[in-house]
Structure formats: structure tokens, C-alpha cells
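FW: tagging you since you asked about this chain on Friday. Here's the raw sequence from the shared folder, copied in full. Didn't touch anything.
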Amino acid sequence: MSYSVGQVAGFAAVTVRTLHHYDEIGLLVPGGRSHAGHRRYNDADLDRLQQILFYRELGFPLDEVAALLDDPAADPRAHLRRQHELLTARIEKLERMAAAVEQAMEARSMGINLTPEEKFEVFGDFDPDQYEEEVQERWGGTDAYRQSKERTASYTKEDWQRVQDEADELTRRFVALLDAGEPAGSEAAMDAAEDHRQGIARNHYDCGYEMHTCLGEMYVSDERFTRNIDAAREGLAAYMRDAILANAARHTP
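HL: got it, structure written out here
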């Protein structure tokens, strides 16, 4: 059984020009010719071409491929063993590279892809990366977590600055209401709580009233949240929680 140069090119996904070149340099000389002088390749030629392409894929230059294949001390099994070892090493290297890329993608997908200086400029003393391990452990499997990662994946420094500015403005509103003695169940306080919920939904993830109340409860049950929120005004965390609960009740039949 013999094959034309065009057929072999199709089998091996190489160009006819490549096969002509291999013939010209003696790397792959076809086993026969047609009556018209056209190249005809047999099964042994195809086996040799496979070996050539394996070595080329591994980065060997053509002269080294020729030396390896024409080594009288080597047999086909030796070539296959060598190629298997080389391919295994390459696979391991590529897997390590893929893992590194995945880690980089994961870090970028969190949206906190800022320099330390930019993070300090946007978030002040608060480092959002500090709690990432805990966030993944507590909420990594939730739709909200996945949504937040997707929405913030492309956020720039300016986007994060906008989000932080919105949060700061809401904090000032809540502080002003608290200082004015406005009850947490008042229209003004509930309106601020609703804006808070909508900001989360707009910038991070779909935040329904049930989830919003869970966040409000966490503001007072987790001392780290309480401490961070109360830094703006003592008692603010509890006030926000109460306003969030009142607003949820207002919108829940």
C-alpha cells in the first residue's frame, strides 16, 4: 500500500512543501516513485514521519531528529520510550504552567488586581485580600460569590474608587441620620438601607431582601464588621442593621 504526497500531507496535517523539504534533506525519503516520478510513501515512511513530527513537536531541530532516527543502535521502541519520557516531562511542565495561570486568573477574577499603593489609595487601611480565604470558605459555593467574581473581574482602579465613594456616601448618610436622632425605622433610614441594597446588587451580586437582612445581622454578630462600621460612628452597625430589617419588612408582604 502506498500513498501520494498529498495524501500523506493530509494524514499528518503538514504541507506538501514540508514533505518535499524532508525529502530534499534526506530526512524522509519516500520508499517509492510512481511511473510518472511522483513520490509514493509506504507504511514504514509513515512510521518515520510520525517519529519526525513527535521530535519536532518536542522542539528538536531537524539535524538532531535525523541523527536520532538514523542511529543504528536505536530501535523503534527506544524512540517511543524516549518520546514518552520527553512528552511526560513536557506535560508536567505545562500542568505547572496551567496551574500558575489559573492562580493568576483567580486573583484577577476577584477584581482586586491593584498595586499595594492603589489598594491603600482606594480602601485605606482595609485590605480586601486579607479576608479572601475566609470569603471562599464561607461563600465560595454560592451564586452571590460567583456573580461578584464575574462582575468585578474587569473592574479597574477607577471602578473600585467609584464603588468605595458610593459606600462612603452611604456611610455619611447613615451617620447623619443617626446623629439627627432619626429612628432606624423611619422613611429616611429605610431609604438609605434600600440604596445600600441596590448598590450591592449593582456592583457585586443580586441582593434580595432576605440576603440583605443576613448581611445586616452579620454587621452586629461579627465583631470585625462591627468594629469597621462603628469606626465612622459608634452604634452605626446596629443602626444600619435595624434600618435594613425595617426596609426588608417594608418590602416583604
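FW: The CA atoms of residues 102 and 108 lie 10 Å apart.
HL: agreed, and The longest strand covers residues 39-41.
FW: great, closing this out.
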